[in-house]
DNA sequence: TCCTGATGCATCGGCTGTCTAGGTATACAC
DNA sequence: GTGTATACCTAGACAGCCGATGCATCAGGA
């Protein structure tokens, strides 16, 4: 495998987080692990990307947070989707499908 | 349509340019118009993104440029893919398909 | 006992890519 | 002459991501 086999997020992290939380509230660390496991590590979620994204989304009113206790009895901040977050998720999913479809269609086209 | 219907490139511009040039040499302006027309304007290529990208790719040795005359008899800089550019295109296309597939699979999954 | 690794939060600096906005110049139609 | 399309380029700003680092707790192994 090439040494530059980066797992870039390309601006999709916010949408992926919203989608993850649409399955129910989770704490930040669990969100990252869930995304990675669901993609078979095709996507890596660095903590330096994750926490700013969560903060960003909460600031926009798409998430709400609450301190609680994780499954492993540790202090953790749980996030849940707001109504506005659900709306944003639908819109962004739609935009992603159109965009990625367009890119894939070009990249896989034969001369 | 939402007013914030941005056509973001999400880091795919370099790959799209390489792909465009794999069909044969073109000048910059034509590359942008080709991408836009192929996607039915789902993707917009701003000139402030285009020219820095072309410069970037040439600096990396993935493109070679040469001044010439466009179909409309105007001075234009023509770009062609180098061998390294073709290799990079193959790698980046592969990376894109894996990445976008992973994202799409998450976003379209049902709880 | 000490050390490592996993869990869980957070921030900082720097880089890269994109956009906005401007500029230059030529050709052609009106 | 004036506008429109073609064709190039750059500067400035900003957002998102990454790497590094820091804090704290707990389990398990050497």
Model description:
2 copies of one chain form a homodimer. Chain A has helices at 13-21, 28-38, 47-59, 83-107; strands at residues 26-27, 63-69, 75-81. Chain A is an alpha+beta fold and 111 residues long. Chain A has a 3-stranded antiparallel sheet with strand order 1-3-2. In chain A, strand 2 (63-69) and strand 3 form a beta hairpin. Chain A is globular, with a radius of gyration of 16 Å. The two termini of chain A are 28 Å apart. Chain A binds chain B through residues 2, 5, 7-8, 10-12, 15-16, 19-20, 22-23, 35, 38-40, 42-43, 91, 93, 95-109, 111, and chain B through 2, 5, 7-8, 10-12, 15-16, 19-20, 22-23, 35, 38-40, 42-43, 91, 93, 95-109, 111. Chain A binds a DNA duplex (30 and 30 nucleotides) through helix 2, helix 3 and strand 3.
Structure class of chain A: alpha+beta
Uncertain runs of chain A: 1-5
Distance between the termini of chain A: 28 Å
Fraction of residues in H or I helices of chain A: 40-55%
Oligomer: homodimer
Count of individual helical segments of chain A: 4
Cα shape of chain A: globular
- Lateral strand order in the biggest sheet of chain A: 1-3-2
Question: How would you describe this structure in keywords?
Answer:
homodimer; 3-stranded antiparallel β-sheet; 3 strands; 14% strand; DNA-binding
């Amino acid at each position: 495998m090439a040494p530059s086999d980066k797992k870039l997020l390309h601006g999709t992290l916010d949408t992926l987080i919203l989608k993850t939380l649409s399955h129910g509230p989770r704490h930040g660390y669990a969100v990252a692990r869930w995304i990675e496991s669901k993609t078979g590590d095709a996507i890596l979620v660095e903590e330096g990307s994750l926490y700013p994204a969560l903060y960003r989304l909460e600031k926009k009113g798409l998430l709400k947070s609450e301190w609680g206790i994780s499954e492993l009895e540790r202090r953790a901040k749980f996030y849940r989707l707001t109504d506005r977050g659900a709306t944003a998720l639908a819109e962004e999913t739609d935009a992603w499908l159109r965009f990625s479809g367009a890119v894939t269609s070009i990249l896989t086209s034969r001369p």
